[in-house]
User: Which sequence fits this backbone?
């Protein structure tokens, strides 16, 4: 099947590569010439395990190609996936300017029936706006070409996106109940058949329900994280162990263990903006969501918990102090720095006069760019931040080690070396990676989240 992907960012590139992997002919469109140049040069503009190899393999086989030519891309596929960004607007709602621009381009160039698929995370009612934008362009041309708009939200987790796409737990399709919608459902069933050979994973529903499903899923997961973070803070105050509490409640099959790990707050491209967008949608609809507002507020507060731990040990003035920081990306197996808790921590420590020696396995280039932007108002602080190629190098001469991203490479460190290189022998663990008794046995002080340590 010939498929067009509008947008070659995270969602678009993963979607295009995985569809090509099962034999489809995929053309990926992007307006960013530099991004297309990277892709045509054999690289990829993001870090996602396995994606580079998959793109190269399918590009060599002629199953995926990349272009900035909108007319060519629209002419290519009967199915047109819109996978462009939906960044938060000033009020927190999703900014749909890229989605509607993509829709207008489709309407401007289409010359036959198209199935337009909203793959981007979009608020309820977006399909209506996409439909209207295409119809306006067709009317401007004096054309009466038929088309239909389908909602097919993505449920990809950064770091395991290929696995999620190739072995999905569900495939949500929202379509109209007319003949065009029925035709679209059949095409989508054929398209996704290779990904559900073991059992039926497709859920067909109306368009608005499909649009809401994506936001509801991310908001539910974010709620679990914020709830556990608040419980961890309470456990710490009461002298309880949040890890034991997690096991106790996770063993209830109605609750389960997923997304019950406390930490330094969630980040990334999905949870923060999706919680905000759903909250704004609720407010606009006259049904304000106090829960979502609390989830958002709790997460912003949690991003400051590590800075408070640092000042609890060393006082508000951190001049002359140096801290090793392990992890920069918002989660492991990605270089994504969007809404990363590390950004809040770094600014807080630098503003208090501290120096930072930071290491991340893959995100340091992106961190340099993003944190440079964060510190545009205080450029002199950049000199207090040094990036280290090796995790052990960040320890040298530091007062304490702060862990903020749970990369696997951090899980079994040489505690003897850590103790030798840290001045104060203190680990502040924002992801509860270690057994407190093991750390104490190595002669180190330990301050985890919501657990008894030995500070």
Assistant:
């Amino acid at each position: 099947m010939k498929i067009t992907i509008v947008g070659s960012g995270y969602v678009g590139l993963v979607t295009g590569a995985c569809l090509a992997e099962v034999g489809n002919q995929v053309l990926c469109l992007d307006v960013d010439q530099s991004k297309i140049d990277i892709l045509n040069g054999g690289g990829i503009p993001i870090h996602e395990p396995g994606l580079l190899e998959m793109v190269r393999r399918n590009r060599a086989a002629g199953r995926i190609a990349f272009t900035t030519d909108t007319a060519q891309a629209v002419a290519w596929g009967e199915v047109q996936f819109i996978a462009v960004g939906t960044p938060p607007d000033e009020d927190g709602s999703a900014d749909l300017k890229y989605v509607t621009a993509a829709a207008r381009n489709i309407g401007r160039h289409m010359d036959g029936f198209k199935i337009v698929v909203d793959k981007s995370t979009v608020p309820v009612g977006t399909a209506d706006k996409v439909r209207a934008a295409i119809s306006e362009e067709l009317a401007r041309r004096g054309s009466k070409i038929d088309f239909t708009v389908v909602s097919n939200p993505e449920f990809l987790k950064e770091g395991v996106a290929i696995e999620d796409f190739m072995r999905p737990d569900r495939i949500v399709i929202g379509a109209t109940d007319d003949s065009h919608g029925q035709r679209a459902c059949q095409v989508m069933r054929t398209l996704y058949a290779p990904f559900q050979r073991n059992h039926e994973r497709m859920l067909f529903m109306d368009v608005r329900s499909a649009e809401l499903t994506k936001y509801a899923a991310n908001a539910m997961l974010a709620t679990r994280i914020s709830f556990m973070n608040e419980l961890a803070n309470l456990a710490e105050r009461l002298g309880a162990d949040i890890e034991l509490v997690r096991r106790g409640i996770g063993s209830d099959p109605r609750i389960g263990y997923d997304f019950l790990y406390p930490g330094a707050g969630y980040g990334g491209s999905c949870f923060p903006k999706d919680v905000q967008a759903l909250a704004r949608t609720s407010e606009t609809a006259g049904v304000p969501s106090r829960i979502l507002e609390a989830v958002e507020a709790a997460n912003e507060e949690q991003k400051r918990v590590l800075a408070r731990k640092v000042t609890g040990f060393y006082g508000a003035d951190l001049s002359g102090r140096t801290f090793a920081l392990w992890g920069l990306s918002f989660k492991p197996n990605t270089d994504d720095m969007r809404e990363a808790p590390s950004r809040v921590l770094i600014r807080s420590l630098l503003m208090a006069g501290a120096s930072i020696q930071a290491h991340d396995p893959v995100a340091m280039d992106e961190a340099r760019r993003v944190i440079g932007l964060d510190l545009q108002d205080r450029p002199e602080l950049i000199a207090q931040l040094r990036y280290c190629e090796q995790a052990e190098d960040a320890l040298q001469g530091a007062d304490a080690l702060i862990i903020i991203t749970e990369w696997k490479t951090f899980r079994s460190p040489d505690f003897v070396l850590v103790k030798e290189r840290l001045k104060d022998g203190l680990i502040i663990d924002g992801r509860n990676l270690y057994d407190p008794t093991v750390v104490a046995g190595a002669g180190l002080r330990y301050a985890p989240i919501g657990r008894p340590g030995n500070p």
